[in-house]
Amino acid sequence: MRLVIVCVCLLFAACSPVQDKPPPERETLQDAMQRKDSESAWSEPVHAARKERAPRSGLRLSAENVVALSGYQASIVVYPKLEGFGSLDVSLLDGKAMNAVAAFCGALLKADSAAALRLTAAQCAPLVYIFLADIKGHALERYIIGSPLVNGTVWQVPVRFFSGRQRLDFRLYVNYGGSIPVIDQIAYGDFVGG
Questions:
Q1: Prediction pTM value
Q2: Is the pLDDT at 127 greater than 70, yes or no?
Q3: In the predicted structure, residue 190 carries a pLDDT above the cut 80
Q4: Is pLDDT of 71 > 70?
Q5: Is the Cβ–Cβ distance between 105 and 145 less than 8 Å?
Q6: What CATH number is attached to the domain comprising 92?
Q7: Domain of 129, in residue numbers
Q8: Which end of the chain is more exposed for a tag (fewer CB within 10 A), N or C?
Q9: Closest listed residue to residue 107, CA positions, set 161, 32, 174, 179
Q10: Distance from C-alpha of 111 to C-alpha of 128, rounded to nearest angstrom
């Protein structure tokens, strides 16, 4: 008998209409937001008035055109910086200096002492041999050139060499006193990372 009464009670509870809203003493977040929205005094959309006054044309502006029309200086270039290395802006290096630095670094990548020595001053030759002896066992794979420091005719050019997961920071001192730039001195540290 008790089972029948429990079943009848459950049947009535299951068939009763579903309440769409919770009891009034508990307000949901959605109800609160709708209430706040209806109580708030909103201004008229500003862009709608501008849109109606704007001349209609089939021209669609790209991001580049909008930047150009806004008076932005497109000639401003932003160069990336590497933490612990510096800026990658090599705009101070003219073509001759850039070619000399790139040729010297390329020769070091190949461990070609003869090619590296052709670009160096006589007093720098022992340093090139010492460097090549120090990096034995490390295959240099690539390099990046950083922003140079200029002091008269001598430019200090930072270079970072990579060997696997390791890196080696290198400083080239380029003397540009004559008609062609010459590597006057080199300085480097130890491989780090990896």
A1: 0.59
A2: yes
A3: yes
A4: no
A5: yes
A6: 3.10.450.50
A7: 88-193
A8: N
A9: 161
A10: 10
